[in-house]
Amino acid sequence: MQAQASAPSPPRLASRASRRRALISLTPLIDVVFILLIFFMLASSFLDWRAIELNAPAQAAAGASVEGALLVEVRSDGLRLSGETVSLDGLATRVAARIETTPDQRVLVRPASGVALQEAVAVLDRLTAAGVSELSLVRDGAN
After folding, report:
1. How many CB atoms lie within 10 A of CB 138?
2. In sequence order, what are the residues at sequence separation of 6 or more whose Cβ sits closer than 8 angstroms to the Cβ of residue 96?
3. pLDDT exceeds 50 at position 1
4. Mean pLDDT in the chain?
5. Exposure class string for 97-128: b at 16+ Cβ within 10 A, else e
6. Strands 106-111, 84-86: parallel, antiparallel or unpaired by DSSP?
7. What is the pLDDT of residues 57-116, one digit of tens each?
8. Which regions of the chain does DSSP assign to beta strands (E)?
9. Average pLDDT in the 25-37 region?
10. Rounded to an integer, what distance in angstroms lies between the CA atom of residue 117 and that of residue 32?
11. Helix, strand and coil in the chain, % to nearest 5
């Protein structure tokens, strides 16, 4: 009778299955959630998005409105204001001085082909900050 009591009993399948379910840990799931949270916090941008208003004149009316306007060319080798090479700061300074004397001064910005859009947007943003209210983006007639 003692031999039967000391022999190990065979494991029961039902109790083993229920034990495994209880061993599922939430730690990896919480780790993944924190990694996703950190990813989205680092990937998100908190920049101040602003819209730049541009005048888009009709093709026929564009010729008449160009007279007296300042032409800013955004080229791959730099900026040009009415044919003179200027820096972005110099451009803003000169245009702001012109705006003080002529508040409704029209400024045309013409990016050359191959120039990154971000450079043209930076120029537009800088001109808007300088106080230009009549701002137009023009393109070459050959395109």
Report:
1. 17
2. 130, 131
3. no
4. 79
5. ebbeeeeebbbbbbbeeebeeebbeebbebbb
6. unpaired
7. 555 455 556 778 889 999 988 899 988 899 999 999 999 999 899 888 889 999 998 888
8. 70-75, 78-81, 84-86, 106-111, 134-137
9. 92
10. 37
11. 45, 15, 40
How far apart are the C-alpha atoms of 106 and 134, rounded to whole Å? 5
What one-letter code names the amino acid at 82?
S
> Residue 106 — φ and ψ, nearest 5°?
-90, 135
The rounded distance, in Å, linking the Cα atoms of 95 and 138 is 18
How confident is residue 34, by pLDDT bands cut at 50, 70 and 90? very high
Q: Is 134:107 a contact under the CB 8 Å cutoff? A: yes
53 confidence band (pLDDT: 50, 70, 90): confident
**Does the pLDDT of residue 49 top 80, yes or no?**
no
DSSP 8-state secondary structure symbol assigned to residue 76: T
Contact by Cβ (8 Å): 128, 135? yes
First to last CA, the chain: 103
